[in-house]
Design goal:
Belongs to the TUBGCP family. This protein is mainly α. The chain is built from ten helices and two strands.
Length: about 325
């Protein structure tokens, strides 16, 4: 199951079938069926442990099934990913440990939703660009190009953030923290108590990487706001995410009729949260193994924000 290409198929199925929290209790069997179908269609079809994965409705005290707006970045936070374990594995994979895995999976789902929304937005914008080029001599051409450039610039900026976040988390989870865990298994574990301790240390590192630890709750909220910007941006272009092969018609006309106040609102929200993230970065430790500082270094690689976004934000100097 380690390749996990089933997860991409499952998340897309959830979105396409609009499996939002409001009807979760009634549709849990259907959602479980989507999970099983996604596994069957993936490279994990013959995995011996595929039947151990299941879904459940989270029963957290502070979470209401109606709290997550349909179509929002938290649309599927109500779902928990479970794994059936037997003795003696359950000595290590305790219920508490499995809850942490489920929390991390929910975060990765949010990143995937944002990334796929921006990919679909790119397909739509390419269609708009093709139509605009065909109308090169018309009187409305200049205004349509201006609107198109606004969309392209905003998508590029949000996409840079989401892509960097996705690559950072994947690298840290799949390589850095995992190699550290394997090294600890080989050199520190002498009994089951050592095993449990090393495993919990690995999970705590994973929570820090995904900004889900108690110390990074503020950062997590900012990141969720930016991921929501990606979904909101896609909604500006009309249609639904992952609706491939649709007929756009006069797409440039649709683009020019877009509610630009909504686009500018998304842009302001994106910049506001970048400012907040930068302030968190300034206050955060600069030498932690898994810290905001490391993510920010990836995000601002080659002074991307200094040159592209710093001009618009003005008073913030993104270089350190």
């Amino acid at each position: 199951m380690e390749l996990a290409d089933w997860a991409d198929l499952f998340i897309m199925s959830l979105w396409q079938h609009k499996c939002y929290a409001t009807e979760a209790d009634k549709r849990i069997s259907e959602i479980q069926g989507l999970l099983e179908l996604s596994i069957q269609r993936s490279s994990c079809e013959r995995d011996h442990y595929r039947d151990r994965i299941y879904l459940y409705i989270k029963k957290e005290k502070n979470m209401s099934l109606s709290a997550s707006p349909a179509g929002g970045i938290q649309s599927f936070n109500y779902l928990g990913l479970g794994y059936r374990v037997d003795w003696p594995v359950n000595i290590i994979l305790t219920s508490g440990a499995l809850e942490i895995y489920a929390e991390i999976f929910s975060f990765l789902m949010q990143v995937k939703l944002a990334h796929s929304s921006l990919a679909e937005a790119w397909y739509s914008l390419k269609e708009h660009m093709h139509t605009i080029n065909q109308k090169g001599g018309s009187g409305s051409h200049e205004s349509e190009v201006s609107v198109f450039n606004i969309f392209m610039k905003l998508r590029q900026q949000v996409n840079h953030f989401v892509t960097t976040l996705q690559q950072y988390v994947q690298s840290q989870l799949s390589h850095v923290s995992w190699c550290k865990f394997v090294h600890s298994l080989k050199n520190q574990v002498k009994d089951m108590m050592d095993f449990e301790s090393v495993h919990m240390s690995y999970l705590n590192d994973s929570l820090h990487i995904c900004f889900l630890s108690d110390e990074t709750k503020g950062v997590s909220s900012i990141i969720q706001n930016i991921l929501q910007c990606a979904l909101d941006f896609r909604s500006c272009l009309g249609g639904s995410t992952w609706q491939c092969g649709v007929e756009y018609g006069d797409s440039s006309s649709k683009l020019s009729k877009t509610n630009m106040s909504q686009v500018h609102s998304i842009k302001r929200e994106f910049y506001k949260n970048l400012k907040d993230l930068y302030i968190c970065y300034l206050k955060s430790p600069k030498h932690g193994e898994f810290s905001l500082s490391r993510f920010w270094d990836c995000l601002n690689y080659n002074d991307y924000y200094t040159e592209v976004i710093g001009k618009d934000i003005g008073h913030l100097a993104f270089s350190v």
